Each structure stands twice: as structure tokens, then as C-alpha cells.
Amino acid sequence: MAIRLCAVEDLAKGAYTRATFGDKVLAIFRSKDGNYHVVDDICSHENVSLTAHNQPNLEDFVHFTNDYVECPSHGAKFSFADGAPTLPAFEPIRVYEVIIENDEVFVEYEA
User: Fold this and answer.
1) Fewer CB within 10 Å, N or C, the chain?
2) Which pLDDT belongs to residue 56?
3) What is the strand order of the sheet 24-30 is part of?
4) Number of structural domains the chain divides into
5) Going by C-beta distance under 8 Å and a sequence separation of 6 or more, which residues neighbour residue 111?
6) What is the CATH number of the domain that holds 93?
7) Are strands 104-108 and 2-7 parallel, antiparallel or unpaired?
8) Averaged over 28-54, what is the pLDDT?
9) One-character DSSP codes across 43-106
10) In which band, very low, low, confident or very high, does the pLDDT at 73 lie, cut at 50, 70 and 90?
């Protein structure tokens, strides 16, 4: 099932946002190369958000590149290609297929 996330123009290069569907929170990134990446917004190591920094003792920043997003808690990096982590995380995060159609950004989502 394809779920609309935003319009292409809603997210500038180098920006990110979040979308919630029921109890699932997705992180949506538009890297500086213009590509969109969508992952579960949760670190598999510490169960903290990759984008929302209302947790105590976390710096208020989100670091991502064209290839990965970094967890603000302990610095694990998760690949946008397949969700594979670097240490200290061991478990990958879920990566979603992004579809751009008629200047709209969708994600292929299966519960």
C-alpha cells in the first residue's frame, strides 16, 4: 500500500521531517543530492528517536548524509540502502521504498 508523505516541494535538500501512522513513526529525509529516504524513526540500539530530541541529555541535532542517518544518542549510523547499522547498534532499522509520483512523495508501506 502506498502512503502519501508530503509534496516534493515541502522538503528542501538537506531537510527532514516525520510522519505518524497509528503507532508507527517514520523519518523522512531529503539528502543534499535530492534523494528521499524513509526509515523507522527509532534507533535499534537505544530505542530513541532519530529525529525528535525531547529526550534528556541529547544534543538538539539530526545528522544525516546521502548514505546514512546517525543516532544522536550513541552515534550508531544506519544505512539508507538497507538499514544496516554501525556499532554500538547490532540490529538494522526498517527502510521503506520511496515513490515519487506527480510531485508527491509516497512510501510503500506494509504493516
Assistant:
1) C
2) 52
3) 2-7, 104-108, 95-101, 36-40, 24-30, 15-21
4) 1
5) 24
6) 2.102.10.10
7) antiparallel
8) 91
9) -TTT---SS---STT--S--EE-SSEEE-TTT--EEETTT--B-TT--SPPPEEEEEEETTEEE
10) confident
Is the pLDDT at 92 greater than 90, yes or no? yes
Contact assessment for residue 31 and residue 65, using Cβ atoms and an 8 Å cutoff: yes
For residue 77, give every residue at least 6 positions away whose Cβ sits within 8 Å of its Cβ, in sequence order, or none: 68, 69, 70, 71, 85, 86
Characterize 40-67 residue by residue with b for buried, 16 or more Cβ atoms within 10 angstroms of its Cβ, and e for exposed: bbbbbbbebbbbebeeeeeeeebebeee
Residue 94's domain comprises: 2-108
Question: What are the two backbone dihedrals, phi and then psi, of residue 90, each rounded to the nearest 5 degrees?
Answer: -115, -30
Task: Please say if the pLDDT value at position 82 is more than 60.
Answer: yes
pLDDT of residue 108: 86
Residue 89 has pLDDT above 50, yes or no: yes
